[in-house]
Amino acid sequence: MTTYLLQRLSYMIPTLLGIMALNFFIIQAAPGGPVDQFIAKLSGEGDMVMERITGQSSEVNANPALDEGVLSSSHNISPELLREIKKLYGFDKPIWERFTIMLKEYATFDFGNSFFKGRSVVGLLQDSLPVSMSLGIWSTLVIYLISIPLGIRKAIRHGSRFDAATGIAVVVGNAIPVFLFAILLIMLFAGGNYLKWFPLRGLVSPNFETLSFLGKITDYFRHMALPITAMVIGGFATLTMLTKNSFLDEIGKLYVVAARAKGLTEKKVLYGHVFRNAMLIVISGFPSAFIHMFFTGSLLVEVIFSLNGLGLLGFEAAMQRDYPVMFGTLYIFTLMGLFTKILSDLTYTFVDPRIDFDHQEALHG
User: Fold this and answer.
1) Per-residue confidence (pLDDT) for residue 181, from 0 to 100
2) DSSP 193
3) Secondary structure (3-state) at 75
4) Residues 54 and 155 in one domain
5) Residue 347 in contact with residue 288, Cβ under 8 Å?
6) Number of domains the chain is built from
7) Residue 133, domain extent
8) pLDDT of residue 339
9) Coiled coil where (predicted)?
10) Would you place residue 363 in the very low, low, confident or very high pLDDT band (cuts 50, 70, 90)?
11) Does 344 map to a domain?
């Protein structure tokens, strides 16, 4: 296992470089970058633009270039001003040099400042992380706590009324998008049309700091209740069916027949023999499921419930072409994704110690 882990770790660096390079050059080549967006905002904002670029206050009429229609509605600007704008965003350097500089800075986790928010990327990530962590951790845990027992029960009672009834719930949960569940929950329980049991916006209330310890916990979970419920309803179907099918596949194997023939109770057969093998693919996928829920599954939920998490931050950065935020978050997410793959392998060996990755590498090497 040690040799395997060292090999996987050695693969991480070229993989990370490849992902960063591919995204960097594709995004940089796309139109509508930060320079284009800045130029689009120039019309009627001459003083503010020149003050931001030069650091000095100036009158529009005092600058000949601006007098000549630099800030006209057609956005015709002088070459001098264009060079200053490119320098402001670092586009005065060749693309290969920009990429090299970015890699050197990212090696020390220096992601720079946001182009449009006026704050460091690290600060923005720190502000957004608690929201995404809350949604990701609680949603994933609740989904697993519901889906695994439900999937096992459906496998044991395959073809029964219980299986058919819960199958309808699974189909509905799989067919309806998460954001529709979120809107429905708001209408029913957040003052939309009926009840107002839960708050609609934010991770905590404005008076959170003044609450007691128990009050803070209650306030936090009241804010999390609806977003987590929406994500759980929209995410439990796939895991439930995976658990059921995995159990059904194992129940029909010869070792189960042999265990029953030895006189073992059904409970002992299911949870002493079948469970470990059936749960291998389910439990080992937990890290990947968490990463998916953490980074990609909560975007629309964050928007609907006004939660400033990583999903919303990444979406806004992509729309504004805020490259420091885009590439900084991509770097962090890629690192976590690569480590998650290794964690999944470790989970395999934890669930079934018979798996030996070093032996498998030797056979296929």
Assistant:
1) 85
2) S
3) coil
4) no
5) no
6) 2
7) 121-364
8) 82
9) none
10) very low
11) yes
